[in-house]
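Long-time lurker, first post.

We've been arguing in lab meeting about whether flavin-adenine dinucleotide would sit comfortably in this protein at all. Half the group thinks yes, half thinks no, and nobody has a model to point at. So I'm putting the question to the forum: if I give you the sequence and the SMILES, can you give me back a predicted structure of the complex? Inputs are below. Any interpretation is welcome too.
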Amino acid sequence: MHTPKRKDLFMALKTSQEYLESVKKLSPKVYVGGKWVSSLLDHPITRSMVMANAAIYDLAQQEPFQNVMVATSHLTGNPINRNVNVCRSNHDLDMRQEMALLTSQTVGTCNYRCVGCDALNGLASTTWEMDRTLGTKYNERFNRWLAGIQEKDLAVSGAITDAKGDRKKRPSQQDEPDVYIHITEKRSDGIVVRGAKVSQSGAIGAHETLVLPGGALKEGEEDFAVAFAVPNGSPGLTYICQYNAYSAEREMAQDESELGNPVFGQRETSTMVFDNVFIPWDRVFLCGETKYCGKLITRFAKTHRMNCGGACKVGFADLVIGATVMAAECSGVEKIPHIQDKLIEMVRLSETSHACAIAAAAKGREEPQGSGVFMPDDLFGNVAKLNIAHGFWEIMKLAGDIGGGLLVTMPRIKDLDHPEVGPLLKKLFQSAAPAGKRFKVAKFLQHWTAGLHGPGTWHGAGAPQSQRVMISYLTDFESKKKMAKKLMRMEED
Ligand SMILES: Cc1cc2nc3c(=O)[nH]c(=O)nc-3n(C[C@H](O)[C@H](O)[C@H](O)COP(=O)(O)OP(=O)(O)OC[C@H]3O[C@@H](n4cnc5c(N)ncnc54)[C@H](O)[C@@H]3O)c2cc1C
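Top reply:
Settle the argument with this. Predicted structure of the protein with flavin-adenine dinucleotide, as tokens:
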């Protein structure tokens, strides 16, 4: 592998400071809990999202992490951030999943460039196939766009999930057509799109968003078959941010130090509303080719399931396990056998999922042949995600068990500084550790076990039923029956 020189790297890769400067120039129309936000860096909620992106830009500048965070562009040969790389080998796939692990361990929230990275890998493979089979020019167009993104080291988020309306109905049968992104006009210079994408991780602080169809489509659904790149804050685009108890807590906090994940917060998403947004042709990578939507989404999904399922959530689990050990130490139970058993069970659950991601990368292959694009193994990618969807709840249950009721009954951390109740709390909550340390650990675990991460892990990269469907499709049950019959010395039916 080409190992980029340090000097080159600093020229090719954005620093966190450069990213923060670039965010100041963005002017998306963002709405958070009843208010329009004029500056992403000045609002406590949007700022946490931007700071997480900045920290991940920083990782690529640090020598020990460059093997994971820096790749070589197949388009230019230059060193690039792995978040905008197309996987060209099993090694690339392995480093991609390692990046998901590392970024989660570093920020304890999303790598907000993750979905975009997997979306661009799905597009690299599918546009190549479309050009070869249909004679289109999508791949050329996509590569031109990608080379620009790589050169400027831009943050790209990925928009796949439509609002979807009534799940019994196809996109074209919905009473409200805007529940799916669709084309309303084709012009000589581009297309106009309407609709919404929901649960969009970090789209507010991304320079661009890659929009893909949310699922396989049929003939007659051409208006919904569209993939494109849209710059942040394009006219007609509105971002309505998620808002919940943790958002309110962050808004009300005197300072970040009293929060569960002080700087980087929870996973911040928004609903992106497209109100007749114009997309020039050079940013359109699929337009009407319904037959290729299933392939595109399947390629995106298995890549995302390897990364989001088998690695990102394992990084979260590492943080939860680390804090749980600290909680046990604080209360003096760390050597007790059932506590040790539970800690080992947490490690077993998370490392098994990581093993699936490593296997998905190792057994990945070029898809389609000749494209040069490597995709993870389908079965291991899906198993990785399904495994952690269940394992993560279990890990959080065990963290809650060891952490005790304090995780949800604790007073405010700031109460320790109160002139009247502070001394009382310090006296009553001292244990094998001072009350301040105990509260800090408990607050961190509260953020995970009583926060948003359970449903987030369950649904991110697709609800588990979609992985079950894929696993059932990918598994050759007949060949397994055959093996068993052979050992039983049972005649074939
Ligand atoms: C924290 C977080 C971050 C996310 N980030 C992104 C992002 O950056 N980009 C992005 O595009 N998406 C993102 N998502 C969205 C995520 O991919 C979806 O939540 C997931 O695919 C499930 O879709 P849904 O939320 O619409 O659930 P639903 O579709 O409402 O599913 C709810 C239940 O209904 C079932 N169901 C739904 N439809 C059917 C059907 N037709 N047949 C049978 N059963 C059905 C499901 O299996 C599930 O049990 C994120 C989600 C979370 C929680």
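For your lab meeting: The mean pLDDT is 96. The pocket of flavin-adenine dinucleotide is lined by residues 115, 158-161, 164, 167, 197, 199-201, 267, 269, 456, 459-460, 462-463, 465 (CB under 6 Å). Whichever side wins, do check it experimentally.
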